[in-house]
Amino acid sequence: METNIKKVSDVEYELEITATADDLADDFRAALLRQRGQTEMRGFRPGKVPLGLVKRMHGRAIAYGIAEQKVQELYEKEVLQKDEFEVLGQPTVTDLDYEMDGDLHAVIRFGVRPEVELQDLSGQKLSRLKKDVTEEDVDEQIERIRLGNAELVPLGEGDKIDDTAHVVIDLQRIDEASNSPIIGEKEEGVEFFMDDERLHDELREGLLGKKVGDAFRVDLPHGDHTHRYEVLIKEAKRRELPELDDAFAKEVTKERFETLEELRQDVRNSLEQAWERRSRELLEGQIVERLLELHPIPVPDSAIDVYLDSFVQDVRQRNDGSLPQGFDVQAFREANRGEAERQARWMLIRDAVIEKEGLEVTEEELDAYFEEAGADNDQISPDLLRRYYEQMNMLDRVKQQLLSRKVFDHLIERFEIEDKDLEDYDEEARAAQEAGSPIAQSEPLITPAD
Question: Rounded to whole angstroms, how far apart are CA atoms 6 and 12?
Answer without folding.
Answer: 9
